[in-house]
């Protein structure tokens, strides 16, 4: 739709408009042109060229001009309609009631302004509001007739959307039928947001990365992109979720139509019926089996309480299992909502309070290549430092060669970066349209940047590796991992010390940790008698760490903490692992072909065996003491395997897991025929489904579990 030349011009114009905050009507045409362009990129191509906050800024400039000059408003101004994402992939259908956008507020002042307008329109001094999270995903509308889901539609341009019923049916939190008739409802249109939880997003990307496939940028893009996939099976794989938060229209079983959301109806609004208030409709949806923000919602009176609540909630943002980008504040009474009405763009009875931006634009200056403990070479992008959601970001991992190619990253590129939740920052995309020809291709090295030896790549893998076991980078990283918190936990010997001792030739490998020359260290600046004593004691104490910690500390590929525990429990002495075949290893919980092979290789490598011998001679514990104790009467769960899924309400997950282990049970990380008990909390997902298909798995509630322990 836009030529390359036009795109360049529009980008240039965008930059000019952003850097010039002046609000004057000369800018009107340019603002509209630029906003239309970015809406097209965002909604239709799903490839925005600027962060949302920049778009919002321009949109607000346009609004301000139009407010000052209402005569200049045109029906096709971006402020007069909802941005459209209609494509030709799916049939287009009409929503029963248009799906509008929301007005935005980004601070307390703007909320107060909005509240003032609400007071005017309702004639009330204090308005009752219902506040709920603004889920960051893609909106949909669902239609149920005679209790059956008959269609699902994207928002589209607000009036018409794309019919994606089959895809919607892949989402497990959307019931295919719901008992609306119990409430006298024959037909109902409801709305909500399709989201991808942080966990599902991580899992999905992990799988993609393992297969060398491209990663999704953020859960939001993931959700909206998934909805319009051609194969419903691909939709199912993404483990999407849905929050339903709005009833836009319904017809009662006796044929009345009710006016909700500005639609004409012949039935008066029920005063105290559950549908008299927005919060009541959330309860009703919940009762009908939908995941509505019933628990998340908060009803308050007056804007001061609203401001307090949204500020508090913003602080919780990272602790939620899904992404939210703000809060939505809605007038609670549906009668008042009706009275307030709507524009062609948004309802007047709601506003979105947007949280601090988590996207920013910056420049990618250079790429450095780091060598990890297993020799994997990771490219790290060096950026012009940019402040983003509480931290200054100046470097970001760009994963692997494939990723760089997929994202078409070049040195000198302008890039959009994002820091979603507690996830580490990511480059969402580069902006090729911003190039001026001086950008340079990123060339992946063929030799280790640290030791110079040739790099190798295993077929089907995305990473290049340095396989020189003596490679300085690897030696250092191995030692750093060995002493780390979840491994041998030698706190006073941190990364900085290891690097320093290594540079000074006081430490050259893992066994060297147990033969440190403390009198030499004592000569170094910064080491007093006390710190030397502490260091010595910590190193000595680590020799008695339980076996699983040592196994984890060895840094065997694919052996994380859980597998390390499984391995430790399978032997009474570490060296027994050397005698296990790959087949035998695979019999262990959670040990698949790849993991078994890696363990087997490790224990059949002369250098590794030599290392273990050295560690034993140095006095490290290679025995599994726990195993000898297990199986006695006071370990009632001996030999039983457990897995938790969903949110527990009485116990913390970590507590419950500790109880299992303390009673001799074992924890698994996935559902398989080796699992004895699945303990199911709230919102259990795929694990529960899978467990139901295996007859031997016993499914327990949290209470059952507590009872089982006889507590
Ligand atoms: N970067 C760009 O170039 C660009 C271009 C166009 C739009 N945008 C972004 O898109 C936004 C406009 O998009 P929009 O019209 O979808 O508006 P929006 O995302 O700001 O808010 C409206 C949407 O919020 C969602 N929502 C989530 N939880 C909700 C809840 N509890 N109740 C009601 N609604 C809820 C609904 O899907 C609704 O459609 C802009 O603010 C901008 O940030 C960016
Ligand atoms: Zn190397």
UniProtKB/TrEMBL annotation:
One Pfam family it belongs to: OB_DNA_ligase
Binding site for Zn(2+): 448, 451, 471
One GO BP: DNA replication
Family matches, as SMART domains: BRCT, LIGANc
E.C. code: 6.5.1.2
Location of the BRCT domain: 632-711
Keyword Metal-binding set for record: yes
Matches recorded under InterPro entries: BRCT_dom, BRCT_dom_sf, DisA/LigA_HHH, DNA_ligase, DNA_ligase_AS, DNA_ligase_CS, DNAligase_adenylation, DNAligase_N
EC category: ligase
Cofactor: Mg(2+); Mn(2+)
A single Gene Ontology CC term: cytosol
Assigned keywords, A-Z: Coiled coil, DNA damage, DNA repair, DNA replication, Ligase, Magnesium, Manganese, Metal-binding, NAD, Zinc
Coiled coil spans: 564-591
Binding site for NAD(+): 52-56, 101-102, 132, 155, 193, 330, 354
SUPFAM superfamilies for this protein: BRCT domain, DNA ligase/mRNA capping enzyme, catalytic domain, Nucleic acid-binding proteins, RuvA domain 2-like
Entry annotation: catalytic residues: 134
PROSITE patterns referenced in this protein's UniProt entry, alphabetically: BRCT, DNA_LIGASE_N1, DNA_LIGASE_N2
A GO molecular-function annotation: metal ion binding
Enzymatic reactions: NAD(+) + (deoxyribonucleotide)n-3'-hydroxyl + 5'-phospho-(deoxyribonucleotide)m = (deoxyribonucleotide)n+m + AMP + beta-nicotinamide D-nucleotide
Family: Belongs to the NAD-dependent DNA ligase family. LigA subfamily.
Function field: DNA ligase that catalyzes the formation of phosphodiester linkages between 5'-phosphoryl and 3'-hydroxyl groups in double-stranded DNA using NAD as a coenzyme and as the energy source for the reaction. It is essential for DNA replication and repair of damaged DNA.
NCBIfam families in the record: dnlj (TIGR00575), PRK07956.1 (NF005932)
Protein's name in the database: DNA ligase
Organism: Filimonas effusa
